[in-house]
Amino acid sequence: MTKNEKFGLVERFLLDNKNAHYRIAYSYVKNKENALDIVQDAIFKALQSIDRLGEIKYLKTWFYRILVNTSIDFIRKHQRVTVMDNEILDGYLPQSEDDPTDMDLNDAIDALTPDEKSLIILRFFEDLKIEEVAAVLGENVNTTKTKLYRTLKKLRVEIGEGI
Amino acid sequence: MKQINKLKKEYDDIEIPSELDQMVKQSIQRAKASKKKHTPLKQWSIGVAAAAALFIGSVNVSPTLAQSMANVPVLGAIVEVITVQTLTMDKETYQAELKTPAISGLEDKGLQASLNEKYIEENKELFKQFKADVADMEEVGAGHIGIDTGYEVKTDTDRLLSIARYEVNTVGSSSTTMKYDTIDKQNNILITLPSLFKDDSYIEVISSYIAGEMKQQMADNEDISYFAFEGSDLDFQAIHSDQNFYITADHKLVISFDKYEVAPGYMGVVTFEIPSAILGDVLVSDTYIQ
Fold first, then answer.
1. Residues B89 and B180 grouped into a single domain
2. Domain A88-163 maps to which CATH number in 1.10.10.10, 3.40.309.10, 3.10.150.10, 3.10.180.10?
3. In chain A, whose CA is at the least distance from the CA of B19?
4. Does A39 lie at the interface with B, CB-CB under 8 angstroms?
5. Cβ of B17 and A36 within 8 Å?
6. In terms of domains, do B180 and B260 share one?
7. B21 interfacial to chain A (CB closer than 8 Å)
8. CATH code, domain with B198
């Protein structure tokens, strides 16, 4: 495969999966402008370092890793402005019609650390296999499994069998 | 798990902004544009340049190494002519690449040094001129100019070394000039055209052969043309006494004309191999040309 063919494949992948990439970024920052910035940044970083992508079959996990790292970097840099105590926030927000237990879970996910968030987004929202999640996060499969169980326990979610 | 699924649905419903598509395409274009600036080829050539520098350095520092390299069949030729210096400029509309050859391994160090110095000086001068041209261009606005010099080893036998150096000037269209140096490696002589012959009569002999050959070629092939007056008479009258030439490995004299010198531009640099038989009477000896 020539460099141009590789670039072409990556380009195709970025165009075809842009919606998924946007949703991942959005899940971290919950804000359209920031999510767009992150996707843009990740695309740029990926294409700049395309030579580090060894085999094309790792394209997805390779790009997800760049995207997740870019998102987490973004949150770390902008952490100061995003934190607001939930109890204070509730006072300003209109009462939700939703099932209260679901609201709690959503809040709970938002309260997770960025790394824990990555696990939930990739495994359950993006339907990645546990091996793929591990590859994206650069950890071994068992560590990833353990962390995922711990995170779910924190969320008090009953998952039964088969993470 | 049901709760997670509900969240997954919310996740899938995250609204995709209309700008996303445009933004992704732009980012790819931007990355493409900046990628071009440092292609892997450049990194590769830095490696080669470093290796070449090391090689030239060690060949120059150690005559013993140079000697032993010269005896290795493949490396022999490399030791004799190597690129010693490359001057480059790579701006959007201004391109320059000047490769300077250097000869090493000649026994006569004086001859070797004077040739090498000449090559370096020539390219330095060209590069200086080119930079001045670029400055002029920039003053009046923008334009495309380019210069490309390099060399080619035409002949490399036990006895002879012929190097052709070319200079391509690009200003809209391009012009090419060739310069040749032919060296007798055994006697350490830089061979000039007059030195090959007894007297000036060679000019007449070679010129009339070339004129005949030009007419013949034009008659045989419509695609070939040389400058001619009023459709019939050739513009070409005679070669210069120091006309560009080189000697082939099988001892034939080749006369070379620059682009535009005797023919329209599309003919490029034209060369004529002179049959040794017609030179027999005017040659000093058959050492070089047979």
1. yes
2. 1.10.10.10
3. A36
4. yes
5. yes
6. no
7. yes
8. 3.90.640.20
The domain boundary, picked from B162, B191, B220, lies at: B191
Containing structural domain, residue B265: 194-279
Q: What is the pLDDT along chain B (290 residues), one digit of tens a residue?
A: 677 788 888 889 889 999 899 999 888 888 887 765 555 555 566 666 666 666 666 655 555 555 555 555 444 444 356 666 677 777 767 777 888 888 777 777 777 888 888 888 888 888 888 788 777 777 766 667 788 888 888 888 877 888 888 888 776 666 778 888 888 877 778 888 888 888 888 898 898 898 888 888 888 887 888 876 555 566 788 888 889 999 988 889 999 988 878 887 778 888 999 998 888 888 888 778 88
Q: Which residue has the tokens 């200079």?
A: B167
Is B109 touching A (CB cutoff 8 A)? no
pTM above 0.80, yes or no: no
Complex ipTM over 0.90: no
* Residue B170 CB neighbour total at 10 angstroms: 15
Cβ atoms B161, B103 nearer than 8 A: yes
Residues of chain B positioned with their CB less than 8 A from the CB of A43? 24, 27-28, 31
C-alpha–C-alpha distance, residues B179 and A71, integer Å: 60
- Contact residues, A window 60-119, toward B, CB-based 8 Å cutoff: 101-102, 105-106, 109
Structure tokens belonging to residue B236: 């070409």
Q: With residue A55 as reference, give the H or E element that holds it.
A: none
Q: Where are the alpha helices (DSSP H) in chain B?
A: 2-12, 19-37, 40-61, 63-71, 73-80, 109-140, 201-220, 276-279
